[in-house]
Amino acid sequence: MPALSQNKDTSFLKAQPVAHRGYHDMNNAIWENTISAFQRAIDHGYAIECDLQYTADGVPVVFHDDDMKRLCGVEGDIRVKTVGELGLFSIGNTSDRIPSLSQLLRLVKGRVPLVLELKGRQGDDEGFADSVVDILESYSGPVALMSFDHWLLKDLKALESRFPLGLTAEGARPEEFALHEEAMALGLDFISYHYGHLPNPFISAQRDLGRTVITWTVRDEAAADHTFLHADQMTFEGFEPRPRSTGDLVA
């Protein structure tokens, strides 16, 4: 595995719990990946995790699914619409619209860390990584970038941006660990891993090398307890976590 001497500072990822898709209420009144959910996370002092997709006119927007049915109630591929068209769609039964990455940055203004997951579609997303990094270059707050997609991680790494770069992953089998190690060989800075697949030899080795590990997606205190036995911080939703830190629990 590569040395970590060039790794970027990821201490901000450990500082406070990370609200999954913002601090929503499981899509009752405050829906995921909306300005309302992001404002609520800011108000509670939580870091924000959210998903980025790429529009037909080359603009990163904050949205999880490829299809718009679950969140907007209409059939349609988000990637065939422009940012202007997407801004007309309400999320759920709320007044929130699909926000762009630029709108998110104008709201947050560095008040809490951002953990941005790029959700790619290989062959359709040329310029996605460049667009995200370009928009972020004038932003002064703490930001980390991550993806499940190894090809997107390669694109992001090639840009040599100032932002920590991480692998989003899961799995408990040796063949899965081998694929994860291929991604980490790019020189990544952190990992976001499914808490239910911890502990495992891959994550233990990465932590021994000094890499930050956060988990996804924690939905109760028992899962939070498990996270802090084996990782540095959690990405959570559906409850208000009690304050804690790595080392609170003993295995």
Secondary structure category: alpha/beta
> What number of domains?
2
Poorly predicted parts? 1-5
Question: How large is the radius of gyration?
Answer: 17 Å
- CATH evolutionary superfamily of the largest domain: Phosphatidylinositol (PI) phosphodiesterase
Count of beta strands: 9
Portion of residues in beta strands equals 15-25%
CATH architecture of the largest domain: Alpha-Beta Barrel
Major sheet: arrangement of strands: 1-2-4-5-6-7-8-9
Count of helical stretches: 9
CATH class of the largest domain: Alpha Beta
Portion of residues in helices? 25-40%
GO molecular function: phosphoric diester hydrolase activity
Protein name: Glycerophosphodiester phosphodiesterase
Organism: Ferranicluibacter rubi
Pfam family, one: GDPD
